[in-house]
Amino acid sequence: MGIAKALTSPLVVAVVLLLCISLVSAHETHNVTFYVHDSILVPNANALIVAGPGGDLTQLQKGVILVTDTVITKTTNPGSDALGKFEGQYIVDGGIKYRIQATVIIDFPGDLVETTYEILGQRTSFNSTNDRTLAVVAGTGFFLGQHGYAVAHTVSQKLYGTNGAQVNVQKWTLVVGK
């Protein structure tokens, strides 16, 4: 039997089709969208400065480390359905950039398995309205083994004074899969 005839045999065609289907389905992705309401240096802030140059915890500046713990919601309205939490740290490494390491905890009602995404990367300034892309490096629980990328978009921002005080609403879309 010649090579051309062997490659067109029903068994070979079936095996090739199964391999193609398994490769395509193994790389399927889906989107997870939520809103983060960050507040910094305002009353009842949810992103707190925990370290600063010379011990200064009063202004957003180079060398500051912030810890955030805020509810993520279904819409831009802070009173909309809560989907989970956004927890992590921001490290301000210059006047126009900061690094972020965050855990997105998705809360499935009645579920005892913690389902999370771990996000790492660098973003431009808190005051930027352009889209930022960060890495989704891992998932746990229902998202075990998933990874991909996150796109953060500032929906609204209110600045107060000159020390960096602000309230931000950000739309996050995670594009993830196995």
TrEMBL record:
Residues annotated as signal peptide: 1-26
InterPro entries the UniProt entry points to: Dirigent
Compartment(s) where it occurs, according to its Swiss-Prot or TrEMBL record: Secreted, Extracellular space, Apoplast
Keyword Signal: yes
Keywords associated with the record: Apoplast, Secreted, Signal
Cited Pfam families: Dirigent
First-listed, main subcellular location of the protein, grouped into a coarse class: secreted
Family membership: Belongs to the plant dirigent protein family.
Description of how the protein assembles with itself and partners: Homodimer.
UniProt-listed PANTHER family: NUCLEOPORIN-RELATED (PTHR21495)
Function: Dirigent proteins impart stereoselectivity on the phenoxy radical-coupling reaction, yielding optically active lignans from two molecules of coniferyl alcohol in the biosynthesis of lignans, flavonolignans, and alkaloids and thus plays a central role in plant secondary metabolism.
Name listed for the protein in its UniProt record: Dirigent protein
Species the sequence originates in: Sphagnum jensenii
Lineage: Eukaryota, Viridiplantae, Streptophyta, Embryophyta, Bryophyta
